[in-house]
Amino acid sequence: MRDATASVHHPVIDESGYASLSVPTHRASTIVFPDAESYATRGSRDLDGFSYGLHGTPTQRVLEAQLTQLENGQRTVLLPSGQAAIAVVFLSVLMPGDHVLVPDTAYPPVIGFCRNYLEPRGIGWSVYPPGIAAGIDDHIRAQTKLIWMESPGSTTMEMEDVPAITGIARAKGILTGIDNTWATPLLFKPLDHGVDFSMQALTKYPGGHSDLLMGSVSVLDLALRKRLRDTMRMLGLGIAPDAVQLVLRGIETMAIRIAHVGKVAHEITTKLEARGVGEVLYPALASSPGHAIWKRDFSGASGVFSVVLPRRAEPRLDAALNGLRYFSIGASWGGTRSLIAPMSIKLSRTFEHTRNERVILRVNIGLEHPDDLREDLAIFFDTLLNEAVARTA
Ligand SMILES: *Cc1c(COP(=O)(O)O)cnc(C)c1O
Question: Which CATH number fits domain 254-392: 3.30.70.860, 3.90.1150.10, 3.40.190.10, 1.20.1050.40?
Fold first, then answer.
């Protein structure tokens, strides 16, 4: 073997006796075959196998299997973002002439996808009011092929009665999917409640450090997994194993992180509600309209809640935000840092609600010391409500 050849052929070393607790990052475009026959028959390889880097390496398979276990599923696919995961579910189910139902509280880019991508291609869509439960029946059309859910809903946190909706959908042969990003499968397992596609943005709690984008969809039905994988192959969607490795690292601490931020968020929301800073939206609060459903179906709450800003506080919002010491101003969530994002929902909502006209603060509780967060929020709301009593930090 000449030097140029030796430079490109890595020596095979004996790995026996080596064991690490971390998952190796297997990068690949090309996957080579041991003989001519296995190359010729590569097309018949199982979807769990390996044929091209785009379709996954062992690094991806480990995360898929880990999510499948947490979801009580059969298979999981990984997508480049949460939004891509939602789009691929829709595209794997819907054909021209079909119809999809989405909640008014859907992650807003979902509404954009329906309006600007599906509709011009002849796929119908309509919006149902959140918390509708069995009332979904009135919104189902003959063409409806998919009912999408998000619970709690984006920003306003309404809970859906998932078993009621999936029961009706199943009876009519309609598929269902849910965006389970807020709860993750640690707090709610959609597949146990009759949902066909359980989707989450791994960008949030599983990644956990605000430094990656990824989504997943878990299913029980292998035929649905095949439809998802076919759609991904056609669109050329794959992900880099390096980002997968970061999720594999993040997910190791996810249970501890969520338990912590859920506890702190519950304490903080209870205090904010008692203080009367504005309507506090968080399903773990007994006052929340979705509380009974949350208690019935979920095993806990995560660290994201919203506060509807009193109108009289709106002029002081910028000053209050600029005074924050530990909370950062930003969207997305699920990382180690606490965040506040003022949201305006008016443009993404179909159904009238007095809240649509209001500024809503979405709060993500991070891993800072809870007392620092409490003090930061106390000053923030003092400024907002103009109760500038000299509170010392
Ligand atoms: C962030 C988020 C998404 C989208 O995830 P990306 O990875 O940012 O595309 C979808 N749904 C919910 C509820 C989210 O919070």
Answer: 3.90.1150.10
Instruction: Please report, as a single letter, which amino acid is at residue 347.
Output: L
Our mutation pick for probing the ligand 1 site, out of 88, 89, 102, 203, counting the most ligand atoms within 8 A of Cβ, is: 203
- Note whether 281 and 307 are within 8 A (CB): yes
Q: Which two tokens stand for residue 158?
A: 């309404």
Distance 21 CA to ligand 1 centre (A): 29
Percent helix, strand, coil in the chain (nearest 5)?
45, 15, 40
Query: CB under 6 Å to ligand 1: residues?
Result: 81-83, 107, 154, 179, 181, 201, 203-204, 213, 215, 332
Share of the chain above pLDDT 70, in %: 98
Q: Tell me, in angstroms, the distance from the centre of ligand 1 to residue 107's CA.
A: 7
**Separation between Cα atoms, residue 305 and residue 302, nearest integer Å:** 9
> Comparing C-alpha atoms, which of 107, 99, 212 is closest to residue 149?
107
Ligand 1: distance of its center to the CA of 324 in Å? Answer: 25
Coil/strand/helix, residue 88: helix
Domain covering 36-251 in this structure, CATH number: 3.40.640.10
Cα 105 to Cα 127: distance, rounded to the nearest angstrom: 9
- Residues β-bridged to residue 77: 217
Q: Give the other-Cβ count within 10 Å of 25's Cβ.
A: 16
211-254 per-position pLDDT tens digit: 999 999 999 999 999 999 999 999 999 999 999 999 999 999 99
Q: Are 102 and 114 a contacting pair, CB within 8 Å?
A: yes
Ligand 1: centre distance to CA 346 (Å): 19
Report the alpha-carbon distance of residue 148 to residue 111 in Å, rounded.
Answer: 11
In the chain, how long is the greatest CA-to-CA distance?
80
CA 2 distance to own-chain centroid: 51
Q: Could you tell me the two tokens for 151?
A: 């619970």
pTM of the model: 0.96
- 198 phi and psi, to 5 degrees? -100, 110
Q: What is the pLDDT of residues 45-90, one digit of tens each?
A: 889 999 899 999 999 999 999 999 999 999 999 999 999 999 999 9
* 201 Cα: distance to centroid of ligand 1 (angstroms): 5
Domain ranges of the chain: 36-251, 254-392
